[in-house]
Amino acid sequence: MAQMEGVQRQFVKAAMAAPFLEREEERTLATRWKEQRDEQALHHLAHAHMRLVIAVAARFRHYGLPAADLVQEGHVGLLEAAARFEPERDVRFSTYATWWIRASMQDYILRNWSIVRGGTSSAQKALFFNLRRLRAKLSRDTRQGDNSKMFATIAQAIGVSQADVELMDTRLSGPDVSLNAPVVDGENSSMSERVEFLVDDKPLPDEAVGSIIDTRRRVNWLREALTVLSERELRIVRERRLAEDSATLEALGSRLGISKERVRQIENRAIEKLRRALTERHPEDVAGAMI
What we know:
67% of the residues lie in helices and 2% in strands. It is mainly α. Strands 1-2 form a two-stranded antiparallel sheet.
C-alpha cells in the first residue's frame, strides 16, 4: 500500500514538473500525430498535459472513488482528445482536451459511484454533478429550510422535474446498502442478513400455480353449467353477472321489452339453476361461490 502511494506521488510530481508547451510546439506535435501517427509526438503531447488531468480529477475527489482511477480515466479522455483534435483550428489543445477529460471522468463516476444505474440523459448527468453545489448555494443565499422551494428552483435551473431532484438528493444523501449486510436481530441477538427482513406479499410459486389451475377448472365448470339455461336466461346472466360493465335491471328490461322486476325474477331463477347444475356435476365445489 505504501509502495503504491509512493508511485502515485512520483507520478504526480513528474506530471507537475513537465514543461508547458508553446502554441506552435503544441500545434507541431498534434500535426505529427494526426498526419504521421508519430507515437513519440503523442506521448510528448499527453505528458505535457497530465497536470491538466490531475487538476480535473481533484474536482471530483468528493465522490469517494480512487484518485488514481480518476486520473487513469482522464488519461483516456486526453488520448481521445488527441485523436480528435484538429491542429489547423485556432484553438489551444488544453482548451479542447478539458471537455474530453471531464466527460471521461464523469462517465466513470456514473458507472461506479453506485450499483444502481442512473444519470443516463444529459439532464440527469447535469443534475447529478450540480445538485450538491446548487443546494449549498441556495441554502447559503436563502438561509431557510424550505426544501420544496429549493428543489423547485434547482429543477427549473437544470431542466428536470422536481421529483427527479428529490430522488437524486435522496440517492446522494447516503451510500448503497448491501442486502447481504449483517443485521443484529434484537429479539434473540442473532446475526442475520438484511435480505431476510424483506417482506414479499405475493403468494408462493406453488400457491400461484394452484390458483391458476383452480380458476381454469372452475371456469370450465361454469361454462358447462351455462348450457342448462334458456337463451333469455343466458343473456341476462351474461350481461348482469359475467360482463365487465354489468347492465342495470332497468336498461336490460328495456332492451328485452320486459319490466325490471321480471328481469330480477329471471336472473334469480337462472342463478338457482346454475347452482343446482354445479352441485350435481361437481359436489366437491361450492356452487354459490362461482357467481
